[in-house]
Structure formats: structure tokens, C-alpha cells
Amino acid sequence: MQPAHKRTFWACFLGWVLDAMDVQFFAFIIPTLMTVWGMSKAQAGIIGTSALVASALGGVVAGLLADRIGRVKVLKLAILWFSLFTGLSAFTNGFHQLLVTRSLQGIGFGGEWAAGAILIGEVVDKRIRGRAVGSVQSGWPVGYAIAALLYWGLYSVLPEATAWRVLFLVGILPGLLVLWMRRNVDESEAFEAASASNEKRGFVGTFALIFSPGVFRLTGLASLMAAGALGGNYTILTWLVTYLRQSQGLTVSMTSVFLGVNIVGSFVGYVGMAYLSDGLGRRKTFALSAAGATLTVLAYTRLHLTSAELLVLGFPLGLFQSGIVSGMGACFTELFPAQIRGTAGGFSYNFGRGIGALVPAAVGITSTSLGLAPSIGMWAALAYVLVFIVAIFLPETRNKELEVHV
Predict the structure, then answer these.
(1) What CA–CA distance (Å, rounded) separates 362 from 197?
(2) Strands, E, within 305-372: which ranges?
(3) Can you spell out the DSSP letters for 335-346?
(4) Which residues contact 258 (CB under 8 A, 6 or more apart)?
(5) DSSP alpha helices (H): ranges in 185-281?
């Protein structure tokens, strides 16, 4: 990559890191709020799902704006937005207040992907698009790891009733990244080439194009792919800490160790599957990841495994759950022309996110009768089977030249 492209890469990568850090804070504090507030598992699932549903709305709006005012401007606005509302979550005093701040935080969370994935996909060469976009998305487990370290550090030195508020306050810091981006990240040439026609068409006209006869099938397939991949991924991200602490009886320190193995697997999945998608193709990589994720999550939650076996299995669990997500940014960039790329990619990913966001809530609801582990396994496996089916019908886009107009 050229120097300007490298700066864009690191801006998008850090955006993912900080986005993940802010989002994952909630998963760590669920057990604390169950004690401090008496919050139920169902309420925790509702907060998690509400934030994800709001992120779907944010992603759709951000996609439209990215096609109108630019990928870079929307990326900066999204980072500022999710940082602000993560910090404000520290001052909440009950379920309903946290539901509001986390839902608003979700709007910026969704917007970050819509702008960042399209931006990096447009600026790199087609031969490395899969590994470049996937490597950017590997910032998610890095942010997850930072959240885990902050959780371990703050909970080690502060009472739980205080530590969770400090954790959320740290979430304000990502806003500082925008100061660096103002001077170092340029808009993509693809956006500049398509922006004039979008200004004439307007928001409604641009949005309508993603449902036009030649595009609607692609929009539908991409949305179903995102629904399955993110439904399974968010289920594990939302409930893994609670599963380890309550179902397995692990301490905070041991939970951090188990998460560490899962996070390393996740990082390897993002990068490894990104390279594989450039070599093997997008469809085959999706299918392979989905099959692996289905088998692994069922084994993790349904088999009676020792602690050592669970620890080891956390690596492939993270690898496959993230391997699916890794390829979506490049694939969605290649599926749609620049004229509607932000709108179509943002809608597909985030409409799918909205549907997938229902899965963590379903886990919380069915865990009352089925138990937490069986609920996680059942719902996550169903989500990953959907990904496998969609991969059969999805067109192969590896090495595709990016189109400008519909």
C-alpha cells in the first residue's frame, strides 16, 4: 500500500479497535449489574439487543450519508458518537437509563462499520482487498482484548460497584482518534467519482436503487449473510463472560484467561480467513467458517468438558466465529457499485445486524427454561447454518474490479 493508503488502513483499524472496546464493556459488567441492580438475564439480553438494533439503524443512515458526504466524514462522526454515549453510560442508575445510553451508543457503533469497511475496500488493490479489509476487522479482537485487560485491572483494584462506572468512562477516549484523522486520512477516489450523480438523485433515489431489479437479489443475500454471521457472533460476545462466571463458576482472573484464548483465536480468524478468502475465494471461506463455527459452538456448550478442554476449545471458537465476519467487508464492497456501495453495504450489514441482534435476547429468554449453555449453543448454531446456506447462493467476487454505477 502507498503511504496515504496505509494511513487509511490504520485509521480504520483503530476505529474497529476502539469500537469493539466500547461495545464489549457491557458484556463484562452484566454479572456486576445483576448483583448491584438486581438486573435479570432477560433485561441484560434486551439491553444488548437494543444496542444492536439501534446500530442497525445507525448503519443504514451512515451508509446513506457515506454515499452523500463521504466515507471519512461519516467515520469520524461515528467514532465521536459512540465515544460520547459510552462515557455517559457511567452515570446511569438503573435498567431503563442504561437501555437509553447503550441504544444511542449503538447508533455510532453501526455507523463505524458502514463507513470504515467501504473506505478501506475502495482504496486498496483488488488482489489484496480481502486480506486488507479482514485485517482491519481484526481490530475487533484487539479492542475486545483491551476491554478484557481494563476489566481485569479495574476490577482488581476497585470495588465492583465502582469499577463498572470507571470502565464506561474510559470509553470516552476513542474520540481523540478523530483529531489525528482530520489531518491524515483522505477521501476515496471511488466516492469522488460517484458523488456528483448521488447529489442529483438525493437520499430517497439512492436508497431506492438497492431494491432495483438488478441489485435486490444481492441486497437480500448480503443481508441474510450478515444476519447469520452477526447473530452467532453477538450471541457469543454477549453471553460468554456470564457463561464462564455463572455456569462454570470461574473467578474474574480465570475468566480473563479463558477470554484471552478466545480473543487470540478471534484475531487469528480475522487475519487467517481474510488471507484464505483472497486465495480460496469468498464463498468457500464463508462456508468453511460457518461449518467450523457450528460444530465448535455445539461442542463448547453441549458437551460435558473439563476446564482444560474448554480453555483449548475457546481458540477455534473464536477463530471460526470471527472468520465469517472477516470476509464480509471485502465481499460487500465488491458486490455493489460505488454509486450505492455505502447505502447497499450499510443496509445489508446492518439490516442483518438488526435481525441477528434478536439472537442474544432470545438466549436470555430461553435460558430460563432450557439453561444458559443449551440456549447459547442452539441459537448460535442456527445462525451459522444460515450462513452456510447463503454461501451456496452468493456470487463469487474475489478479484472483481469495482464498479462505479448501477
Answers:
(1) 43
(2) none
(3) HS-TTTHHHHHH
(4) 244, 250, 310, 311, 314
(5) 189-209, 216-242, 252-280
Q: Whats the size of the chain, residue-wise?
A: 406
Q: What is the largest CA-CA distance in the chain?
A: 62
DSSP 385-404: HHHHHHHHHSPP-TTPPPPS
Encode pLDDT of 143-186 as tens digits: 988 998 999 899 999 999 999 999 999 999 888 888 888 888 88
Q: Evaluate whether 10 touches 135 at the Cβ level (below 8 Å).
A: no
The residues spanned by each domain of the chain are: 3-176+203-393
CATH topology of domain 3-176+203-393: Growth Hormone; Chain: A; (1.20.1250)
List of residues 6+ apart from 121 with CB closer than 8 A: 129, 132, 133, 329, 330, 332, 333, 334
In terms of Cα–Cα distance, which of 87, 27, 74 is closest to 52? 27
- Residue from 179, 58, 69, 46 nearest 119 by CA: 69
pLDDT, tens digit (0-9, with 9 covering 90-100), for 243-278: 888 888 888 788 888 888 998 998 899 899 999 999
Closest by Cα among 110, 100, 101, 95 to 52: 110
